[in-house]
Specification:
By secondary structure, this protein is an alpha/beta fold. It has 9 helices and 11 strands. It folds into 2 domains: 225 residues, von Willebrand factor, type A domain (Rossmann fold), CATH 3.40.50.410; 47 residues, no CATH class. The strands form 3 sheets. The protein has a 6-stranded mixed sheet, with helices on both faces. The relative contact order is 0.15.
Length: 298
């Protein structure tokens, strides 16, 4: 079988160099299998002493406290807090609305490049990374792995991604949540143009499983701000229905409706302890990502 090459336009080495020194850290306790950058809820053997317990058959003799044995005549082993790697799950929306490209770059292109950047950061710090593409259902999934080859597999998957209308977040997110086998961080990259109640139910399932959830909302600036004049033909990217109207005549009501929807989405995420970050496709992605990760580190 011939492995397809990774298109050079998906990854920019200079871009990765600019973000290479940043670390994506989970704020809460995470599960993992390697000694990495994140605190584990489990006791293991590492560099930070935690406590003693009595020796049981099968314990590593290297961790016996022989000085304590000399004083008390009983065997005790040292326990340490374990450092663990994070499991990062990337959920990328590839539904039809993500094809909007009024600024020259589609939301889907922006989202896949963002996912590639986050995967690069996580792999660089030895975290396990997985990815799920969804629309009306789960379209593709790669199990999280902490190996260099995982990045190549993620990039190939993203490079061959095309949109799939329509979206059905009420069906897709629960299916995606079932694939997250270990507690960690889930980053959802989408425009979130779907039924808000169903979206929140999907987020609730992820939070119920104790994942840290980060929602990255990708906008086309024309969708958000309507910087247009004169007659405009609006087309639904998923149903292909169209409507021609005068932009000046609808701008006030449009911006009011969009503003209220954005406010509701933000409040609903905040109630669930989910951070919502907005970005537009004409924002330089490296600057958006660097600004966010620096702010997060503080």
């Amino acid at each position: 079988m011939i492995t397809p090459a990774i298109p050079t336009n998906l990854t920019d080495p200079a871009f990765f160099m600019r973000i290479g020194n940043l670390e994506l850290r989970a704020r809460g306790i995470v599960e993992g299998f390697l000694h990495g950058l994140h605190r584990s809820p489990f006791i293991g053997y590492s560099v930070e002493f935690a406590s003693h317990r009595e020796y049981v058959q099968g314990d590593d003799l290297r961790h016996i406290n022989w000085k304590l044995y000399a004083r008390q005549g009983r065997l005790y082993v040292k326990e340490f807090d374990a450092e663990t790697n994070m499991e990062l799950q990337l959920f990328v929306d590839i539904s039809g609305s993500m094809e909007c490209a009024n600024s020259g770059v589609s939301k889907l292109q922006y989202a896949t490049t963002l996912a590639a950047a986050l995967a690069h950061l996580a792999i660089k710090q030895h975290d396990a990374v997985g990815i799920t593409l969804y629309a009306d259902k789960v379209i593709a999934h790669l199990e999280p792995k902490a190996r260099a080859q995982q990045l190549d597999e993620i990039l190939r998957l993203l490079a061959n991604t095309t949109s799939r209308p329509p979206s059905d977040v009420g069906r897709a997110l629960p299916l995606a949540a079932e694939l997250c086998k270990h507690r960690g961080m889930v980053v959802v990259i989408s425009d979130f143009f779907d039924d808000e109640a169903k979206l929140m139910l999907g987020f609730d399932q992820l939070r119920y499983r104790l994942h840290e959830v980060l929602a990255l909302q990708v906008w086309d600036r024309w969708e958000r701000d309507l910087p247009l004049d004169g007659n405009v033909c609006f087309t639904d990217m998923e149903t292909k229905a169209s409507l021609t109207t005068h932009a000046d005549g609808i701008r006030e009501d449009y911006l009011k409706t969009v503003g209220q929807w954005r406010k509701n989405l933000s409040q609903n995420c905040q109630r669930r302890g989910i951070e919502l970050v907005e970005m537009t496709t004409d924002d330089p992605l490296d600057r958006v990502l660097i600004d966010y990760l620096v702010s997060r580190a503080r």
